[in-house]
Every structure is written in structure tokens, then in C-alpha cells.
Amino acid sequence: KSRASRDRSKRRRRGRSAEQARMPRITPDLVNSSPQFTNPLREREIKLRANKIPAIENLGATQDQFDVIDLSDNEIRKVENFPLMKRVKTILMSNNLVFRVAEDLHESLPNLHTLMLANNNLLNLNDLLPLASVKSLRRLVLLDNNVTKQPNYRLFVIKHLPELLVLDFKKIKPKEREEAEKLFADGGMGEKVEKAKATQEDIVKIKAAIANAKTLEEVNRLEAKLKAGEGLDAAMADDERGFEGFSQCGAFKCFRALLFLDGGGMDAKSTT
Hints:
Blueprint: H1 2-22, H2 28-33, E1 36-38, E2 44-47, E3 68-70, E4 78-79, E5 90-92, E6 100-101, H3 105-108, E7 114-116, E8 139-141, H4 153-160, E9 166-167, E10 170-171, H5 174-183, H6 200-211, H7 216-227, H8 231-238, H9 255-259
Parallel strand pairs: 2-3, 3-5, 4-6, 5-7, 7-8, 8-9
Antiparallel strand pairs: 1-2, 9-10
């Protein structure tokens, strides 16, 4: 039985090895056999598109002889593993599965000017922050990524990539830069929180709820969660030991609104 089990394990390993060997990869042979030409902008371009490539590797085989590398229509998940390529100015990676950008991309591609990442899997605004270190980047396309549906997406990119000139085929206007500076002046994510006016009855309930808090740690933990964007209801669900009165006041959207009420005569000292 033990021998049979070992034989099955060996067969599985051989099967995986054979499958990996059949997977498309960027190899020197693929680089040499791929179309290489001078495009209409008189740039040297290599076309590695539509090869079902799962990862970036072995691009040193290009010997840094190209201005444009086209990796569109593959299955690449991460923008990473580029060798030092000083000549490359444009990377085309639309229609892949990209969900992450390497932190050291600026070191590998110090002169990257244009990056096309349309129709990928970038989800959160923070996923774009590694691009902020690519100071040479002037044109960026992220259309058809879920990240473009995030609140203040365009202003977030404009703020964190100040050298960028064109985003999603639209030239960045001075007015947009001003709006981005104002929105992210505090270094946050730019979410606007509306503070509702509280009635006297609301204020009494809130003071009672704060008085019921067992420790300052509970207050701080709730505030941290709310700053992270989880919302008042989520914070209530997480801590059922106190703050029962908060659930009675649906007019308030964040804990800061509870601590700094207009005309309520209440300050942070109330939490102690």
C-alpha cells in the first residue's frame, strides 16, 4: 500500500511537471520569433501579445533593444520581474489578469512613459500607489478595471501621480489638480463624510452611550474601524459590550461626528 501511494505521488509530480512544461512562457526563442518592427511613431516594438503568458520573465533576452513591449491579451497577473530596461518607454498590458504592480517598477523601468493596463483586475486605490514612484510616467490607462469605480478614483490618481499628464485618454486639467489637492489635503483617501445636525435628544442619547463605554480602548478601537471605512453599523456589530445607545442615533455617519457635534458643547474629553 505504501509503495502504491509513493507511485501515485510520483505520477502526480510527473504530471504537474509535464503540465508546467507545456505552459506558455517568455523564452529567448519566443522573443526571437515574435514580430519586431518600427511602429508609426518610429519606435522599435516587439509584439508578445496573445500567447497566454502567465508571468513576466526572461525579458533580458530582448537585450533592451525596444522602446515598446506589447504584452496585451495574455494571462499575466503581476506587473513585476522586469530586468533593468532603460530604453523601454511604453508597456502595453491590456486584457490580462493584473491585480498587482511591483513596488520596484521604477527601478526596472526608469524611463517608462506610457503604461496601458485596461481591462485587468486592479481593484483598490492602494493597488495603484506603486505607480507613484515611477516619476517618468506621463500616460496611464486603467479603463475597465474595478478600481475606476472607486469614489474619487481620478482625483486620487492625479494627487498621487503628479507628473501624470493623461489619464484614461483624457488630459489632466489644472482644475482637476486643484480639486485633488483640496480633497486629499489631509493625506487621507478623500472620502467625504457628511455630518448631520443633531437634536438635543440625540445629544443626550449619545452622551449616555459614551458614558456606558467600559474603557477608552473601546472608544479608540471603534474610531479606528470607522477611519478604515467600515462604518458605524459595522463597528457596533463588532463591540456589543457598550455603545448600545449609538444604534439609536442613525443620523450620524462617523464617530468624529459624535465627538464634534455642532452646538452640542461636547468634546473629546467626554470619552474619558
